[in-house]
Specification:
15 helices, 7-stranded mixed β-sheet, binds L-homoserine, 6-stranded parallel β-sheet, 418 residues, Dihydrodipicolinate Reductase, domain 2, Rossmann fold
Length: 418
């Protein structure tokens, strides 16, 4: 970008767009001028001068005076067209649209290569936590052993309100919607789609992985039962929707987004309400914990603002892990230690487990703890059906089950009671 001053065309004036409008008014030192805002619903009352608004996207995309397009809509397909056109027209783009970015990542990478235009999206994952730029700039490929994160504010908010303040699921969801945390279609939050979209983006900046979100094993919090919360309480665990990635041998990365029991002294257990948290394990630094608001008008706008500010010095993602290192490969070839609660043993394919080490039959619900291959969970849906609830145990990844079995066997032979 050759322009010194930033002239912004904004798409979307919902929770984030309006937040950005207010934040820009409070940061005159940025010298960024909001020139036009494109909206879908002109009939809605807006808290900004009417002359700012248009419903014609071409008024922004083809205006040569506009050098930055900020896209904060919730329509992934329309947003992709907007972003692609803007980049091809030589404009820099800032987007908060995680669904659009995750689903169109290969095309967006290609367009950036072809045009040299900058596309920034710090707000698309963990809102106010600067996680993308950190993964991109700070960690060398070989040092990043593992990442474990809470990346969706709404589900974390709902779990906190349900299990700590005894709100019902629907009361907690309504509150998340009223607070502007939830997506316009809250199923995207509740069933894990939003989290897995964010995880697909972060896997790229962490490990150079370019995979569609539907290639990642995931679910949300829709099946978590009050009985699970009781088990968690007995075991002194919290229940969180956790996105996790771990480097295995030979450049493979195990990655998934699933509910998980977290131990009460783990950093992620301290993450409540709409906050997000990211724990990074790297070679020499050991563990680092990033914490901040992961949803809401101003926290999201703050990250958009930071991207806009970065454009003043022509900042671009270099996609270092993808282009300058040997990219890693997403794998489902590992085992997971899971807790399952269910109503009837008939729904559970017991033979698919490597082993089951704990089971309990209550009157209404039963549960087991066992080890199962991740590929099996990715291929099958029984664990999402018939009111079955799957929650990972703490430290759930087992890379090589044969070694664990051999160890168990040798301890048994040595007479050690397991
Ligand atoms: N619905 C999203 C969340 C908004 O709850 O995390 C922020 O991306």
């Amino acid at each position: 970008m050759q322009h010194q001053s930033l002239r912004i065309g904004l798409f979307g004036f919902g929770v984030v767009g309006e937040g950005l409008y207010k934040v820009l008014q409070q940061t005159p030192s940025l010298k960024a001028e909001l020139t036009k805002v494109c909206i879908k619903h002109p009939e809605k009352k807006r808290n900004a001068p009417t002359q700012l608004f248009t419903t014609d996207k071409n008024n922004l995309l083809w205006d040569e005076a506009i050098n930055v397009i900020v896209e904060v809509t919730d329509d992934a397909d329309a947003a992709f067209e907007i972003v692609a056109t803007a980049l091809r027209n030589g404009k820099a783009v800032v987007s908060a649209n995680k669904k659009m970015l995750a689903e169109h990542l290969p095309d967006l990478l290609q367009i950036q290569l072809e045009t040299g235009s900058s596309l920034l999206y710090e707000s698309a994952a963990c809102a106010s936590i600067p996680v993308i730029r950190n993964l991109e700039e700070y960690y060398d490929n070989d040092l990043l052993h593992a990442i474990k994160a809470i990346v969706n504010g709404s589900t974390n908010f709902i779990l906190t309100k349900m299990f700590e303040e005894q709100l019902s699921f629907s009361e907690a969801l309504l509150l998340a919607q009223q607070s502007g945390f939830a997506e316009s279609n809250p199923v995207l939050d509740v069933e894990g789609y939003d989290a897995v979209n964010k995880w697909a983006l972060l896997l790229n900046h962490a490990y150079g992985i370019v995979e569609h979100p539907n290639k990642i094993l995931f679910t949300g919090i829709q099946s978590i039962h009050t009985a699970d919360a009781q088990v968690a309480q007995e075991k002194k665990y919290e229940i969180k929707l956790v996105a996790q990635a771990k480097k295995l041998k030979e450049g493979n990365v195990a990655a998934f987004v699933l509910p998980q029991f977290t131990k009460s002294d783990e950093p992620l257990s301290f993450v409540k309400n709409e906050y997000n948290g990211v724990v990074i394990e790297s070679g020499f630094a050991d563990k680092q914990f990033f914490y901040g608001k992961g949803a809401g008008s101003f926290p999201t706008a703050s990250a958009v603002l930071s991207d806009i500010a970065a454009l003043r010095y022509q900042y671009k993602y270099e996609y270092k892990k993808l282009y300058h290192h040997q990219p890693h490969t997403l794998t489902h070839d590992f085992y997971l230690k899971v807790y399952l609660s269910f109503t009837d043993w008939h729904f559970i394919p017991k033979d698919d487990f490597e082993w089951i080490e704990e089971w309990h039959a209550g009157e209404e619900r039963k549960y087991l703890v066992g080890v199962i291959h991740a590929q099996h969970l990715y291929n099958q849906n029984w664990w999402k059906a018939n009111e079955t609830s799957l929650i990972l145990m703490p430290e759930p990844i087992i890379e090589n089950v044969e070694i664990v079995k051999l160890k168990k066997r040798s301890l048994e032979l040595a007479g050690v009671n397991l």
